Amino acid sequence: MDTAENAATDTAANRSQAAPGALADFARFVLCGGGLGLAAGFAVAALASWIPWALANALVTVVSTLLATELHARFTFGAGGRATWRQHTQSAGSAAAAYAVTCAAMLALHQLVATPGAVLEQAVYLSASALAGLARFAVLRLVVFTRTRTREVPGPRTSPARPAAVTVLA
What we know:
Layout: H1 3-47, H2 53-76, H3 85-112, H4 118-144, H5 146-149
Helix pairs in contact: 1-2, 1-4, 2-3, 3-4
């Protein structure tokens, strides 16, 4: 096989491995993050009966983000270990954006419906969380945990360039 055929075969193999990797990551993200998100939705509703909804959402967001970042570091994105402070900080940034999305969705709901029932509130909250979760998956996979997945791919060995021989005429 010539070099062009090898390159084409390697590129096709890399593309076929990248898609299942992303799909498997997404499945693990939905399992870990989605399960935690459902629990968070019920926790927010329970806390909101004692404290203002925005505060309940903020508290649950902080706790669930810490837990989710650990789960994603250990299982979702294949780090196999604890999340670093850098990963927690970056994850917190994406969680802050998700918090803003869920608050905006609930604010919009309360502007449109005077007294929404608990089921409608949960549906709106979980829908907004799901949309924010899709964006968080992309950020976590492409930015936060990118070094975790990076592996060196062996390439063709080349020797270092040698300086050209210089002929000195006297």
